[in-house]
Amino acid sequence: MPEPIYVNLVRDPVERVISWYYYVRAPWYYVERKQAFPDIALPDPLWLKKDFETCVLRGDRECRYLEGETHEGIGDHRRQSLFFCGHSDACTPFNTVGALQRAKHAVERHYAVVGILEDLNSTLTVLEHYVPRFFKGASQVYWASSEGAANRDMEIEANKLVMCYPEDIDDSFANDCLHFKAYVGPENNTTVIILDKCEQSPEYISKP
User: Fold this and answer.
1) Contact between residue 94 and residue 71 where contact means Cβ atoms under 8 Å apart
2) In angstroms, rounded to a whole number, what is the distance separating the alpha carbons of residues 83 and 10?
3) Which of 67, 71, 77, 82 is deepest in the core (most CB within 10 A)?
4) 8 A C-beta contact, residue 165 and residue 113
5) Total domain count for the chain?
């Protein structure tokens, strides 16, 4: 059987980790978990109310992002390379070179397009040209929607709290990325666009 057409969309790694921090503290999240796993104890209210800035500045374990660390308890979705790496045990430790290489290999071998949320215009254009069967007219549909209109003039910025990050955390985020390839169709002379954040300096993450 032919392989399915795989596509995915990733976002700024710092924005992603901040979003995940608050996601696992949402009240509805624990209601659903309690319903699914009745024996799991509810977390301390102080933990639920702790903001991300406090967590980072105090150096709490969950906000230290140590290379090779294995996250216990809830799933470790702090980095997006995990979604491409696979189910091997080598993918579990946080931010390791081996996990990153496996993820990059999977993207190169299996994915037609991996887009970037912060460059949604280019992502939609690439999807329209490279996977037209499913995404023809996607840009027009998105920008005509209420969500697209609301985001039309909105700049997606890295959280200012990133400025407080130690250098090693900046480095780990800079290294925790993939080589994103997107192919634009014949109408653009089959131009190959390489979106490679891995070659950018760690300062990229700290720019507002």
Assistant:
1) yes
2) 10
3) 82
4) no
5) 1
**Does residue 104 lie in a domain region?**
yes
Mean pLDDT taken over the chain: 74
- 143 in a domain, yes or no? yes
| Cα separation of the two ends of the chain | 46
> pLDDT: is 108 or 176 the higher one?
108
Q: Identify the domain containing residue 21 by its residue range.
A: 6-206
Ranges of beta strands (E only) in the chain are: 6-10, 111-116, 179-183, 192-196
DSSP structure string for 55-88? HHHHT-GGGS--TT----SS---SSTTHHHH-SS
CA distance 165 to 151: 28
Whether residue 177 is contained in a domain is answered as yes
Per-residue pLDDT band for 145 (boundaries 50, 70, 90) equals confident
User: For the residues 67-95, what does the mean pLDDT come to?
Assistant: 80
The Cα 71–Cα 203 span in angstroms is 26
CB distance 119 to 195 below 8 Å: yes
Domain assignment present for residue 1? The answer is: no
Structure letter (DSSP) for residue 133:
H
